[in-house]
Amino acid sequence: AALDLELRGAGNMLGGEQSGHIEAVGFELYTTMLEEAVNKIKGQESVERPVTQLSLGIALRIDDSYIPEENQRLRMYKHIAGSQDERAIADIRAELQDRYGDLPQNVSHLLDAAELRVACERMGISQLDRKRDQLHLRFTEKAAIEPGILMKLVSKNAKRGAQFTPQGVLRYPLTSTDPDGILTEVRILLDELAAQPAAAR
Asked: Which of 1, 77, 97, 176 is least surrounded, with the fewest CB atoms within 10 Å of its CB?
């Protein structure tokens, strides 16, 4: 009950008009917004951190067959959503394996996606979406991306449909359709974008 109040608050937040909000904004963004609101009520200043919206069109969930207790599932979702570095996600992965056994594919993909989300936030990518056979990346104004590397990446893959739009969106070709392949291709793309030019090494 305490966790339920922590996640949903009190008053009309327990009523029907609130039921669609988590689905509309996404669990990670919802918990971040909720935490900021609670801190504001308490008079605490929260440190602003970028939040990346990740939508890859693959199953990212903790099945009730893996963690039957609903409150424990919600608590684990919150831990994953609140993770701010790869070490924290690695600790959650180890905890899950220790308490519940080998990770099902959906749970493993959820943690992999959390690692990608952390990398995106560190680089200043506000949104990463999969649109059929393309990845769409939208950058913040303070994105830590070397323009030369971005342009070189687009030029190298232009024949496959890569482009950087005037709206600041990188459209990048995606060849995989299975979850593992999609996650791997996203990871490779982020690694390439995070690379430093030779002169800066």
From this structure: 1
